[in-house]
Amino acid sequence: MKRKLQLSGILTLLLLVFIIGLKGTFDGYYGFYYENKTYQKPLAYTACENITQSLPVSMFTSYTGFDTGYGFYAPNVASDFVMSFELKDEKGTILEEKMLPSFKSKESRVRYTTVFNMFLDKISDQNRYDKKYFKYLDLIIQQIAENVMKENSKATSVTTKLYLYDYPTIADFKKGKMTENFILIDEFKH
Asked: Rounded to an integer, what distance in angstroms lies between the CA atom of residue 190 and that of residue 159?
């Protein structure tokens, strides 16, 4: 019985990996070739989408990183977000401004940068998440902010801002515009 339970768990996990991979393939294909066109989604695409967007599966993929696609092979994963921290004392004087918390290991830094992928859901025009998921994202920012505040013993408050890079387009780059802008996504004061 124990063996059958283990085998069914492994088969379920493999099925999920296959479905998520298939949905990613559909997203890539239809997103590239039909970006600004209306089209009838195939039944397989709709089925994969419904499965991956169900609450248990979407939570599982967010927590395990299954929903990140093949971007983990690329350098500078999730580098299109920046989080800034402004630490103040009890009088409101700025003690420190920083872009990153202190990390004890390289793995911590990688985990920190990959958490930003979830924040893309906040700005997506195809939001299908309930309010609890967005509260979860707010809680992540709050926890990061509180840990940064603990790094400076004189700090009594911290303002955290999450920005998205807005890179210049190729046309702007050809005109000489080479600086990027930042788009404010979220702000947290503690």
From this structure: 6
